[in-house]
Amino acid sequence: MKKEEQLELYYQMVLIRRSEEKAAELYQQGKIGGFLHLYIGQEAVSTGLIAARQPQDRVITAYRDHGVALNCGIPANEVMAELLGKATGTSKGKGGSMHMADPARNMWGGHAIVGGHLPIASGMALGDQYAGNDNVTICMFGDGATNIGFFHEALNLSKVWKLPVLWVCENNQYGMGTSVERASAVSEIRQKAEGYQIPNERVDGMDVMKVYEASQKAIEWVRAGNGPYLLEFITYRFMGHSMGDPERYRDKQEVERWKEGDPIGIFRKQLTAKKVAAKTLDEIEERAMTDALNAVEFAEASPEPELSELFADIYAEEVHK
Amino acid sequence: MREAISQALMEEMDRDPAVFILGEEVGVWGGTYAVTKGFYDKYGPERVKDTPIAENAIIGAAIGAAMVGQRPVAELMTINFAFAAMDYIVNQAPKLHYMFGGQFKVPMVIRAVGGGGRQLGATHSQTPDAIFAHFPGLKVVSPGTPEDAKGLLKQAIRSDDPVLFIEHATMYQVRGDVPDEEYTIPIGKSKIQRPGSDVTIVTYCKGLELSMKAADELAGQGIQAEIIDLRTLRPLDMEPVLESFKKTNRAVIVEEGWKSYGVGAEVASRIYEEAFDYVDAPILRVAQKEVPLPYNRTLEQSALPQVPDIVAAVKEVLK
Ligand SMILES: Cc1ncc(C[n+]2csc(CCOP(=O)(O)OP(=O)(O)O)c2C)c(N)n1
Ligand SMILES: [Mg+2]
Questions:
Q1: How many domains does chain B have?
Q2: Is the pTM of this model over 0.95?
Q3: Domain region containing A204
Q4: Buried b (16+ CB within 10 A) or exposed e, A89-111
């Protein structure tokens, strides 16, 4: 990957981090309501993964979706505005944190029912296969989601019909407070793909370059018409499951250990080793901070949706009351 | 309210070793709404079972364990996830006793948290109680006071039939007296929560909280509303409702779910069918506007039934 492209990925990772930190503050101030699931610690996964897609490739994910939205190119302003429930948000303030989407940027939504979007991803891939194009659907989900029936039905179907879908498990070790070991019969999630004879790989999800390389290979393999592929990225969320998580299920040392392998820190070291000047990286970090702050300003200044919006978009067609 | 539900669970677990809990985050986490806080330490992982995220497996396993003699209390983190286990809840549990000529029993409770108003978006904010009350064979309970919650949950655990016990996400802080002595409350009995003579308000769960406030406001204006709390949606006890209606001749039905095909529709029809001669004004329903709930706070609140809506409806039926 070219140096400029790598610097762009660095920018994206820092932008996610700063935006998420701002979101946490806004939540504490009561300006964001509902659930807020932060992506802090997992930035390398969606950044490396989405950098490896072609523009025609579709991305669909779960509710931990702010970072994914930013990586897909949705402006930070719109993501922040959605978090604040404003009319300028990606979903007009009606979706909130868990429901970022922009089909024009091939971001097909954050989805709040665990595992519920996996069969939908199979369907998107089916639609593209039916149309005869070479789009790939990239479907992201957590380790916890691999224990629900949706996952197994979707994987099986994708193999039986040889669908162009890349399954991406973000194994951050926990589904809420339940560790992979306590919830899953196999702790290596990739083994579940074996049962469906779907080729698979387990990859370090804290190293954005490793994520990128594995993703690129997998996406092109799928695009070549070989059927589905599953990637398992090993990662960790540094924050609670959502805001207000008492975190009784893991100890502080464990979190601290993982924080030593901060994906942004790792990437910064790699870039420094490749002779990128500290000043260049600092400037990128400042730019990311400015953009996150501007997003907050934009979101706060944005209007609330009109009350009439309540009844808009229930159906795509005009329907009488 | 939270404490009353916790107490009911604990007392029944202490009383009967066949009672155990299973669900997502009920153990180490202590329950997403902290209802089972401390249970894991007290009863251990055998009786407070953290499950994978697998609603079909949770409810299906509860049914199976119940069939062979245990009394599982399965927790659905929210009632919205019931849709991921719908076959078990409406197509298996309520059918097994009947379809096999009374040979199987399914003494199981499903606790589920419902309700809107927390800005959780359309898939996480529903009050779909009426859907479940549609199915014969399933008992559906949804209390509005801590006293009722405790007594009804204890009775639900002792019931030999599957019971869906619906709590409301915004009511765990509700305070109220709970008897010191041991008690249970029968399933399928409505209750007068506030006596009055001018108008009958029929409601349950969150609607009770709103209706009580509305009744206070109405009393200030010289209108005495009688509030009937259904407490159980199936089997539905219409006796106190009809008795009250025959006295007031006017009714408003308050529910948090959507109006169409809802609890209000059922109750109003029964009044028309069974007390038509007493009707002095069209029965009105106060319910959720017919939209999936939005995230934005103002929009969400405007879609949910509110106290002024109840006051206005009462004035309308009294016109
Ligand atoms: C069907 C369903 N059951 C339960 C939930 C509640 N819930 C939301 S997130 C979550 C944990 C998911 O864990 P994982 O898939 O590992 O994703 P992570 O949060 O770690 O990113 C649970 C149980 C839900 N949203 N949908
Ligand atoms: Mg996880």
A1: 2
A2: yes
A3: 3-303
A4: bbbbbbbbbbbbbbeebbbbbbb
